[in-house]
């Protein structure tokens, strides 16, 4: 089996993978990083979003071998080494942007990508960007509110659903 090498959450990572091994499988099974979730196996839910070389990707649509030499960031690498949550994680907690938590890693990773591209997105832009992420619990209102809060915007302008 071929060997794949990449940097995951700032640390070198490698392992033997079959050509058909998905990045999400490599992260979860080879590296034990189970924060990246598999929700649908069809790239519809967004629970598996990670950053590869700074871009948000659904890791169930990418082979591990395609990440050879790449910088990969998973939800486990978002918080500071001392456990301090980043602004998006903190906003999700403060504004109740999660319920069961299954979609949360993918939502946080997508939100971070959005804010990197657009530091002050509108409510409509946030909803549009999250179109590929499914939450079966919250109805998105508090997720949108959390992302706006993480961007430093006034969340009182968001109408209740």
TrEMBL record:
The keyword rRNA-binding does not apply. Residues 2-78 form the 2Fe-2S ferredoxin-type domain. Its EC number is 1.2.7.4. The gene is coxS. CDD domains: fer2. GO terms for molecular function: 2 iron, 2 sulfur cluster binding; anaerobic carbon-monoxide dehydrogenase activity; metal ion binding. It comes from Roseovarius halotolerans. Keywords: 2Fe-2S, Iron, Iron-sulfur, Metal-binding, Oxidoreductase. This is Carbon monoxide dehydrogenase small chain. InterPro entries: 2Fe-2S-bd (IPR002888), 2Fe-2S-bd_dom_sf (IPR036884), 2Fe-2S_ferredoxin-like_sf (IPR036010), 2Fe-2S_ferredoxin-type (IPR001041), Beta-grasp_dom_sf (IPR012675), Diverse_Oxidoreductases (IPR051452). It holds the Pfam family Fer2_2. The lineage of its organism: Bacteria, Pseudomonadati, Pseudomonadota, Alphaproteobacteria, Rhodobacterales.
């Amino acid at each position: 089996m071929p060997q794949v090498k990449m940097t995951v959450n700032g640390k070198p990572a490698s392992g033997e993978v079959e050509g058909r091994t998905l990045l999400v499988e490599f992260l979860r099974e080879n590296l034990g990083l189970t924060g990246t979730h598999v929700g649908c196996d069809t790239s519809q839910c967004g629970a598996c979003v990670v950053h590869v070389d700074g871009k948000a990707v659904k890791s169930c649509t990418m082979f591990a071998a395609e990440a050879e030499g790449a910088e990969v960031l998973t939800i486990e690498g978002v918080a500071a080494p001392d456990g301090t949550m980043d602004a998006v994680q903190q906003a999700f907690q403060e504004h109740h942007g999660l319920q069961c938590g299954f979609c949360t890693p993918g939502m946080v990773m997508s939100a971070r990508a959005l804010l990197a591209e657009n530091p002050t997105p509108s409510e409509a832009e946030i909803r549009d960007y999250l179109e590929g992420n499914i939450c079966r619990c919250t109805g998105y209102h508090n997720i949108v509110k959390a992302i706006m809060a993480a961007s430093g915007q006034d969340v009182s302008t968001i109408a209740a659903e």
